[in-house]
Every structure is written in structure tokens, then in C-alpha cells.
């Protein structure tokens, strides 16, 4: 075990998505599979309390409440390990900075905090490396908002659209003031588009097409491909992106008048499959770890103000 | 007519390569190959006679044989030298591995301390950046209030 100065405290931001877990420097898929015995093939597992959890072989299904299962607790351990590994640590006093969709904050914020903080001394293994984390506290911030809060002042009319795998979260910010009544969480994440594409392609091929074969077409566009698969993906992705745009209009987006900030994996679809690309009043935040970085930023700000 | 046989006990040193090989060779012979005495005497006489012939008639062949012997001796020396070098190399490897482990442990400790400092620096840098970005107090307050 490496030496550790027990008085040192660090902040680790973790973005608990349904599709991917993100920290400031790492990203991995959310699949969790519990096993009683050590996995034979995978090394990508968390060992916690004599159980083995294989991480990242699939995506979680949308749950509506992140505290309903053990999944996000185990994924948090994996995220902590990933980030500690990045920082060259095996032990740390950690303030965990996390987020929830904007509209869930009031109802689920306290529960999520309790859920993550129920055990403060965490002893676990990840990829056969031992870790010891003392959780000093958990800070919960609004997802999406955290990613733009350090962009500076936002005069005029602004709209934030955080399009994840499970949900799309929208909020308006007028002259630096977030409008609470504008908060919307819509269960219209990229997962819907993915399922639609898989359904359409399986009709033709007679078998399910894995997500990993479709994802590059969504994140990067079809890049000049003219084969049947690419054309179908393009058609469905354009349709989904157009539906997103229509929903944004319903929630108050006015092209040319409102500055739109798009974050999350869904942003790639809007960028690749709509005409919003290249418009001066649209900002795509392409850093998929932006939320996690934002959480760390906000937690540091909060600690500074409390001193 | 009855033949006269005389006995001679021969001891072969197993640590000596040539003696060991000879002993092994003798162990492998069968009755059809002849007796120990016959085989050894034939071999000795053949070698001794050939040497004598070379000395008397063909001095250039003596030189060649002498060179061949030198080569053989040199090869043996080389082999022994290689073995000594290998043994030395292995002991150096052990010493080097121990040294590297020690250095690595010291380095990881230093790295650990460095990483902790870097983490502290990152946090303090982030705090410093706070002054550089024009933050909206309303937005910050909103983020903090939502989390309460």
C-alpha cells in the first residue's frame, strides 16, 4: 500500500449517467453484473464485501430513481477508483461531488446524498487494486447546469439542454438567473434513438445489432457512407434530432433569440444531424466529462465560501 | 594357448569433462563392441602411433594438430569463461533488481506525495481561476441552493 497523508482532502466529481459514468478524467459504461465468485475473463470488476461486480459490459436501463438499486453505489466505487488511479492514489479523504437531473434535485437530492454517504469508510478492490476511501461528504449539484456554470456571465436569453442516454434536461437562464419554473426533465434520451435504430436494422438483418456498431455513426455522423445501414441510421438519427429540436422549441427555444447550450451525448446528434451546427448562438459542449468537472468546480467554490 | 591378462583399476573423475565422457562411453559399449581392454588399447595405440608418425614425417600436420588442440583448449576456456560470466551476470541481475525495487518504492512514495500536492495545487488553481472568470452570483447561488 502506498503512503498517504491522511490530512489531505480531495474533491472527486462523478457524473452518474444511465449510459456512462464520467469523472473529470475517465469515462466507462454503466453495466453492473453481480457475481458470487471472481470473474474468469474480466478484470474490470469491483470487489466489495466479498462480492464481485463486473463493470462496463453494457448500459444500465433507465430507472427513474438512482437510489433504487445498488448499481450506482457500486459504479461510484469504480469511478472513485478510476479517478484515484489517475491521480496516483490508493487512499484518500474524498468529498464526492455529484449531480442529478435538474427537475429531480428537490425530490431526490437528499436521498441521493444519503444513498452515497451511507458508508463513509470504503474498502474495496477495482481491477485487483485495493483502495481505501474515507468519504468526508457528498455535494449534489444540478446536472447540466454544473457544466456551464464556469463559462462566465450569461446575459440575455439562454437555454441549457443536457441530452443524456436516459433523459433530456432543459432549463432557461435569463440575464444570469436560472428560471426554476423552466426546469424540464423529459424521458427522451439518446437511448430511444438507439433502440429505434436497432429495431430497424434487426428487421433487415434478422438479428440484433450491438450498440457499439451504431454508436460511432451517431457520435461522428455517417462521414460520407452510402451503404444501407448508414443511410438508415442517418434517417432515424435526423428524425430523432428533429424531434429534440421541436421539443426545445416547445420548452421555449427561439432560434436567433436564445443562446442554446447543448451538452451530453445527445449533443453529438444535434451537431451531426441538424442545421444547428455552425450557428453562432448555439454552443455545443463536446467534453463528455464537463458535468463531472463542473461538480468539482462547484464543490471547490462552495468549500471556499464556507471557509 | 592360454592368454595372460593383467588388471588395472581405472577411476574416472566425474567432474572432469573428458574423464566423465570416457566413462559414459565405456558404460555404453556391449560385448559385440569388444572388451574394455581392447577398446582402450586400440584407441591409445591409434592416437599414440598417429602422433609419432606426424612428429617423424609430417611436421606441418603436427602444426595443424597443435593448432586444432589450441582451438579446442580455447573453446573450452571460452565455455568456462562464459559460465563464469553468466554466473556473475545473474548475481548482478539480482542486485540490480533489488536496487530497482528499492528505487521504485522510494519513487512511488515521492510520486504519491507529488500527486497529493498536485491535487492540492489543482484545487487551489481552480480557486484562483474563480477570480478570472466573471461568475454570476445568481447562478452560483442557484447551484448551491439546489444542492441544499
Describe the structure.
The complex is a heterodimer of chains A (307) and B (148). Helix content of chain A is 35%, strand content 28%. Chain A is α+β, with helices and mostly antiparallel strands. In chain A, the strands form two sheets. Chain A has a nine-stranded mixed sheet with strand order 3-2-1-7-9-8-5-6-4, with helices on both faces. In chain A, strands 10, 11, 12, 13, 14 and 15 form a six-stranded mixed sheet that branches. The longest helix of chain A has 23 residues, at 228-250. With 148 residues, chain B is mainly α. Residues 126-132 of chain B have low confidence and may be disordered. Chain A binds chain B through residues 2-5, 8, 10-11, 87-89, 102, 105-106, 109, 139-142, 145-146, 149-154, 173, 176-178, 296-298, 300-302, 304, and chain B through 108-109, 111-116, 118-120, 123, 126-127, 129-130, 133-136, 138-140, 142-144, 146-147.
Largest sheet of chain B: none
Helix content of chain B: over 70%
Order of helices and strands of chain A: EEEEEEHEHEEHEEEEHHHEHEH
Structural class of chain B: mainly alpha
How many helix segments of chain A? 8
Which tags fit this structure?
heterodimer, A: 307 residues, alpha+beta, nine-stranded mixed β-sheet, six-stranded mixed β-sheet, 8 helices, 15 strands, 35% helix, globular, B: 148 residues, mainly alpha, 4 helices, 0% strand, rod-shaped
Summary, kept brief:
The complex is a heterodimer of chains A (307) and B (148). Chain A is of the alpha+beta class. Chain A has helices at 71-86, 105-117, 145-148, 190-205, 211-220, 228-250, 266-273, 290-306; strands spanning 9-16, 20-23, 27-29, 32-35, 45-48, 51-55, 91-100, 121-126, 129-142, 157-163, 168-174, 177-178, 184-186, 259-263, 282-284.
Q: What topology does this entry show?
A:
The complex is a heterodimer of chains A (307) and B (148).
Chain A: E1 9-16, E2 20-23, E3 27-29, E4 32-35, E5 45-48, E6 51-55, H1 71-86, E7 91-100, H2 105-117, E8 121-126, E9 129-142, H3 145-148, E10 157-163, E11 168-174, E12 177-178, E13 184-186, H4 190-205, H5 211-220, H6 228-250, E14 259-263, H7 266-273, E15 282-284, H8 290-306
Parallel strand pairs in A: 1-7, 7-9, 10-14, 14-15
Antiparallel strand pairs in A: 1-2, 2-3, 4-6, 5-6, 5-8, 8-9, 10-11, 11-12, 11-13
Chain B: H1 17-28, H2 36-57, H3 59-132, H4 137-147
Helix pairs in contact in B: 2-3
Amino acid at each position: 500500500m502506498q503512503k498517504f497523508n491522511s490530512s489531505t482532502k480531495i474533491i472527486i466529481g462523478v457524473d452518474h449517467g444511465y449510459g456512462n459514468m464520467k469523472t473529470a478524467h475517465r469515462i466507462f459504461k454503466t453495466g453492473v453484473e453481480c457475481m458470487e465468485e471472481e470473474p474468469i475473463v474480466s478484470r474490470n470488476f469491483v470487489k466489495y464485501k466479498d462480492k464481485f461486480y463486473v463493470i462496463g459490459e453494457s448500459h444500465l436501463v433507465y430507472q427513474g430513481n438512482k437510489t433504487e438499486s445498488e448499481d450506482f453505489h457500486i459504479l461510484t466505487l469504480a469511478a472513485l477508483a478510476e479517478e484515484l488511479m489517475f491521480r496516483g492514489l490508493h487512499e484518500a479523504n474524498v468529498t464526492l461531488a455529484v449531480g442529478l437531473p435538474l427537475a429531480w434535485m428537490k425530490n431526490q437530492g437528499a436521498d441521493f446524498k444519503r444513498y452515497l454517504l451511507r458508508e463513509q469508510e470504503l474498502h474495496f478492490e477495482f481491477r485487483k487494486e485495493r483502495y481505501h476511501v474515507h468519504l468526508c461528504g457528498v455535494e449534489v449539484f444540478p446536472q447540466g447546469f454544473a457544466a456551464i456554470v464556469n463559462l462566465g456571465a450569461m446575459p440575455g436569453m439562454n437555454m441549457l439542454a443536457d441530452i443524456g442516454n436516459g433523459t433530456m434536461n432543459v432549463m432557461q437562464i435569463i440575464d444570469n438567473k436560472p428560471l426554476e419554473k423552466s426546469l424540464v426533465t423529459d424521458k427522451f434520451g439518446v437511448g430511444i434513438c438507439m433502440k429505434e435504430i436497432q429495431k430497424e436494422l434487426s428487421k433487415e438483418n434478422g438479428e440484433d445489432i450491438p450498440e457499439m456498431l451504431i454508436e460511432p455513426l451517431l457520435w461522428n455522423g455517417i462521414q460520407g457512407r452510402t451503404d444501407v445501414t448508414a443511410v438508415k441510421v442517418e434517417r432515424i438519427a435526423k428524425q430523432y434530432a428533429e424531434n429534440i429540436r421541436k421539443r426545445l422549441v416547445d420548452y421555449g427555444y427561439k432560434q436567433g433569440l436564445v443562446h442554446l447550450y447543448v451538452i451530453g451525448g445527445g449533443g453529438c446528434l444535434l451537431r451531426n444531424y441538424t442545421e444547428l451546427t455552425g450557428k453562432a448562438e448555439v454552443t455545443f459542449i463536446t467534453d463528455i466529462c464537463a458535468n463531472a468537472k463542473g461538480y468539482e468546480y462547484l464543490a471547490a467554490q462552495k468549500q471556499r465560501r464556507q471557509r | 594357448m592360454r592368454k595372460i591378462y593383467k588388471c588395472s583399476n581405472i577411476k574416472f573423475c566425474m567432474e572432469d569433462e573428458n574423464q566423465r565422457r570416457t566413462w559414459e562411453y565405456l558404460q555404453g559399449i556391449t560385448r559385440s563392441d569388444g572388451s574394455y581392454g581392447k577398446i582402450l588399447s586400440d584407441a591409445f595405440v591409434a592416437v599414440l602411433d598417429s602422433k609419432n608418425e606426424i612428429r617423424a614425417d609430417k611436421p606441418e600436420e603436427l602444426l595443424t594438430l597443435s593448432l586444432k588442440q589450441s582451438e579446442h583448449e580455447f573453446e573450452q576456456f571460452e565455455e568456462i569463461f562464459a559460465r563464469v560470466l553468466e554466473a556473475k551476470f545473474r548475481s548482478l541481475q539480482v542486485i540490480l533488481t533489488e536496487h530497482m525495487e528499492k528505487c521504485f518504492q522510494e519513487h512511488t512514495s515521492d510520486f504519491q506525495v507529488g500527486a497529493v500536492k498536485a491535487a492540492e495545487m489543482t484545487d487551489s488553481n481552480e480557486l484562483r481561476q474563480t477570480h478570472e472568470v466573471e461568475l454570476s452570483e445568481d447562478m452560483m447561488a442557484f447551484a448551491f441552493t439546489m444542492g441544499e
